[in-house]
Design goal:
Mean pLDDT: 90
GO molecular function: formyltetrahydrofolate deformylase activity
Number of strands: 15
Distance between the termini: 33 Å
Strand content: 25-35%
Pfam families: Formyl_trans_N
Shape: globular
Family: Belongs to the PurU family.
Number of helices: 9
Function: Catalyzes the hydrolysis of 10-formyltetrahydrofolate (formyl-FH4) to formate and tetrahydrofolate (FH4).
Keywords: Hydrolase, One-carbon metabolism, Purine biosynthesis
Strand order of the largest sheet: 9-8-7-10-11-12-13
Low-confidence stretches: 1-21
Largest sheet: 7 strands, mixed
Order of helices and strands: EEHEHEEHEEHEHEHEHEHEEHEE
Structural class: alpha/beta
Radius of gyration: 23 Å
Helix content: 25-40%
């Protein structure tokens, strides 16, 4: 620690003292707009004039779509809030016709939905408790009682929400009520085996992630790993994507692949596939919670 002495009884911490740095508030700015000159300069000047330090900067200039996507992490005065930053940034955003958002260090609140397969839920809970998920799991919802003990052992409330054709609408409304009651930022379908209605998908647009058991599209329906075995696959994969009204057609966030061969039967393929599913889903959740995923029409830009 470096001190600057003023007299025998007082001292002032210089900016090299680590405690000064620790007091800085951390923020993330994400934006997308039509590509044109001056955008990055406008952003960096805005931050410099307010005394912020840029900790991380990534951008992607999409020459085909003529768009710019940017993520900048910065730190500085704790007197600022995302709301204040947004208000002061609006004039720049209007000039460049930006779609943008500011975020502070507040962690995303996550609701996890699961059915009978528990490998993805188990992996998410492990990463959450270890502090590497990027968000906070606050609730587990399921149409089966299978994993109540797993959720409650992690100290999480478990909501049993059975779904039948007759109760589907009421169950989905209850889910939306839970999202509001618990201030949920992200809904994760961790092998939740119910098709969401178009209305629910639209209500959760951009804030619901699903995991699919293959590279999309492929092996849809029941017993996917038996289908894979029958076709003699050489690669087993998984796809994490945003939920849309078009089943399994949402913008893709992450894909994972594992090489296999003729010796893998359906059970072995399922085991390997579950590893791929858990890994792809946890990455997608973490990147979303860290504001590293920018939606770009039907695809995504992911700043890892």
């Amino acid at each position: 620690m470096t001190l600057m002495a003023t007299d025998s009884s007082t001292s002032t911490l210089t900016q090299t003292d680590p405690r000064v740095k620790d007091k800085a508030q951390k923020f993330v700015l994400t934006l997308s707009c039509v590509e044109r000159a001056g955008i990055v300069q406008a952003v960096t000047t805005f931050l410099f004039e307010r005394g912020f330090n840029i900790d991380e900067h990534q951008q992607f200039d999409d020459g085909l779509r003529e768009t710019l996507h940017l993520r900048t992490a910065f730190s500085g005065s704790p007197e600022y809030t995302p709301e204040r930053l947004q208000a002061e940034f609006n004039s720049i955003a209007d000039r460049f016709e930006m779609k943008f958002s500011f975020h502070d260090q507040t962690k995303q609140r996550v609701l996890v939905m699961v059915s009978k397969f528990g490998h993805c839920l188990n992996d998410l809970l492990f990463r959450w408790r270890g502090g590497s998920l990027g968000g906070d799991i606050v609730l587990v919802v399921s149409n089966h009682e299978t994993h109540r003990a797993m959720a409650e052992a992690a100290g999480l409330p478990f909501v049993y929400l059975p779904v039948t054709p007759e109760t589907k609408a009421a169950a989905e409304q209850r889910l939306l009520d839970l999202v509001d009651e618990h201030n949920i930022d992200l809904v994760v379908l961790a092998r939740y085996m119910q098709v969401l209605s178009d209305d629910l998908c639209r209500s959760l647009e951009g804030r619901a992630i699903n995991i699919h058991h293959s590279f999309l599209p492929g092996f849809k329906g029941a017993r996917p790993y038996h289908q894979a075995y029958d076709r003699g696959v050489k690669l087993v994969g998984a796809t994490a994507h945003y939920v849309t009204a078009e089943l399994d057609e949402g913008p893709i966030i992450e894909q994972e692949v594992i090489r296999v061969d003729h010796s893998y039967g359906p059970t072995a393929l399922s085991t390997v596939g579950q590893d791929a599913e858990a890994l792809a889903l946890s990455r997608a959740v973490r990147w979303h919670c860290e504001h590293r995923v920018l939606l770009d029409q039907t695809s995504t830009v992911v700043f890892r």
